[in-house]
Model the fold of this input.
Amino acid sequence: MEDLLKAVADILRSSKNAVALTGAGISAESGIPTFRGKDGLWKKYRAEDLATPFAFQRNPKLVWEWYVWRMNIISKAKPNPAHIALAEMEKEGIIKAVITQNVDGLHFRAGSKNVIELHGNIWRIRCVNCNWKTVLSSPPTQIPPICEKCGGFMRPDVVWFYESLPREALNKAFKFAAQSDIMLIIGTSGVVQPAASLPLITKDHGGILVEINVADTPLTPVCHYSLKGKAGEILPRIYEYLKGKFE
Ligand code: NAD
Ligand code: ZN
Done:
C-alpha cells in the first residue's frame, strides 16, 4: 500500500491538471449516509423513490421530510480529513478542480475553491412554478416552503433521478475531465450517469485514473490504481508524501 501511495503522490507532483471526482463516500466519514450504503434507508424508503420529480409531485411533504432529515445531518457534519486534504492540495496548486456529485457543500467548507457541483446544493431551493431561487441557512420549518414571488412550492435545487444536470457545471466538468492528466475518483459508486463517464473521458485523453474507495466499483477495472480504504485515511497520507518532497 505504501508503495502505491508514494507512486500516486509522485504522479500528482509531476501532474499539470490533477482533478478529483467525488461522491457520497467522501462524506461518509463526516457522518452523512450514502444512498447505497447500509445507512442509506430513511424510514422504509429508498433514495431512488424519493429523489425524483414524480415523488415530489405525488407527495411533496414526504420528500421534504426526507430533505429536512438530511439537512439536519449535514448542518451538524464537519469536513473530514479527506475534504481537508483535497483543499490543501488545491492550495498547493496540485488539484485544479473538485468535481463533486455531493450536495452537502463540505468541499467549500473545507476550503476548496474550484468546486463543480454536478448535482446542485441542498441549501439552495427553487420554485417549481417560477424558478425563483433562494439559499437557506437552516432546514425550513414550514414544508414545503412557499415561493415569496408566486406562492408556488419550493424544492431543493438538486438534481433528481430522471433529471438532467446543470449545463454549465456539466460543460466545465467535461472540459476538466478531458484536460486532466490524473483523476482521483473518490467515494463514488460509478453507477450514476453522466458523472460515471467522466473518468472514461480522462482515460481516453491519456490521463491516469486513481480510485479511492472502500469497495470495488464498475470503474475499478478501468482504473490504473485502486487504493482500497477510507478516503479520510488515504488522502491525508498521499498529501503527507506530497508534502514530504515539497519541504
Ligand atoms: P455514490 O454513488 O457516490 O456511492 C458511494 C460510494 O462511496 C460507494 O462506492 C462506497 O463504496 C464508497 N464509500 C463509502 N464510504 C467510503 C469511505 N469512507 N471512503 C471511500 N469510499 C467510501 O453515492 P450514493 O450514495 O450511491 O448516491 C448517489 C447520488 O446521491 C450521488 O449524486 C451522490 O453524491 C448523492 N448523495 C450525496 C450525498 C452528499 O451530498 N453527501 C449523500 C448521499 C447521496
Ligand atoms: Zn415562484
Residues 105 and 118 are 12 Å apart (CA to CA).
